[in-house]
Amino acid sequence: MIINMAHGSGGAFTSQLIDEIFVKEFDNETVKELEDCAIVDGSKKIAMTTDSFVVNPIIFPGGDIGRLCICGTVNDLLMRGATPKYITCGFIIEEGADSDVLRKIVKSMAATAKEAGVKIVAGDTKVIEGNGGIMINTAGVGFVDTDLNISSKNLEEGDVIILSGNLGDHHATILGSRMNITNNIKSDNAPLNEIVENLLKEKITIHTMRDVTRGGLSTVLTEISRSSNLDIRLEEDKIPVSNEVRDFCGLLGLDPLYMGNEGKCVIILPKEEKEKALSIIRNSKYGENACIIGEVMAKEEDKALVYIETEIGGRRILDVLQGEGLPRIC
Q1: Edge-to-edge strand order for the sheet containing 83-94?
Q2: Strands across the sheet with 265-269, in order?
Q3: Class assignment of domain 5-143?
Q4: pTM
Q5: Within 13 Å of residue 120, how many CA atoms lie on the same side as its CB?
Q6: pLDDT score of 10
Q7: Which of 3.30.70.260, 3.40.50.1970, 3.90.650.10, 1.10.10.10 would CATH assign to domain 152-318?
Q8: CB atoms < 10 A from the CB of 144, how many?
Q9: Which pLDDT value is given to residue 168?
Q10: pLDDT lower than 50: segments of the chain
Q11: What pLDDT score does 199 carry?
Q12: Where exactly are the structural domains of the chain?
């Protein structure tokens, strides 16, 4: 079936699309009700997020836009210590899209939602003129322990910075796919539930967490540094990058510190707990390559800075990504 404008009209073709693909694949009692909104169990303290996914290509080595949208939404909730519970999704489908491709994406969403322990409870579908593209908007809701407060404002001098794994895989995958570069690099898109849940279960004191997406590690840590008004010092030789991505960066002149990821996070916590936390992360799914990459320092200048001690003994000041970077990476 090729999708056309009638599939977005709200009539019989829309019902067919919803019933045969979305309801069939998401398959839970809430979504089957087909009401204007979902009624679900709540909590005294909730986390909410929203995101839009326009990645190109929509299917890439190691993932697709369906897996990506669930991972991105779930990870945003996890970074504040929330337990992800519910997701809504809005599909904007361009005329000419193939329903087999759409079904593959929806299947991937359903499988990733199951992995992440969330339920897709509501959605919307619009069809517009175009060339067969698919874009997805999500909203996510999670529950938060009333005593939990994870924020960059909690940083303290002496805190250590743990990165959950290798940098640059997703960015290199998307760019390589667009340029038809053959390699073995795959996207790291992954839900980070197990890492966060295991840390919280073991009562690790987490001062802040951030997922390292667009703008890369340098951008994320610069934002944290400015928010906390403390310096951050990194060690270049401690930052994990796979050989394949390092070679890819060398070929194209890219810097892994500014490359986007979709399954990595930084976790900042007291130095007294660093070894226990690192062990927990490395023994969690998607955390096997975690490393301690730096520490929080007292501010040296008027403005809080992030800097990296290079392998040759120099110091390089880092900043947020300047310019566009790679468009349509997520």
Answers
A1: 46-53, 134-143, 83-94, 119-128
A2: 208-211, 265-269, 160-163, 291-297, 231-235, 306-309, 315-318
A3: alpha beta
A4: 0.90
A5: 29
A6: 59
A7: 3.90.650.10
A8: 18
A9: 97
A10: none
A11: 98
A12: 5-143, 152-318
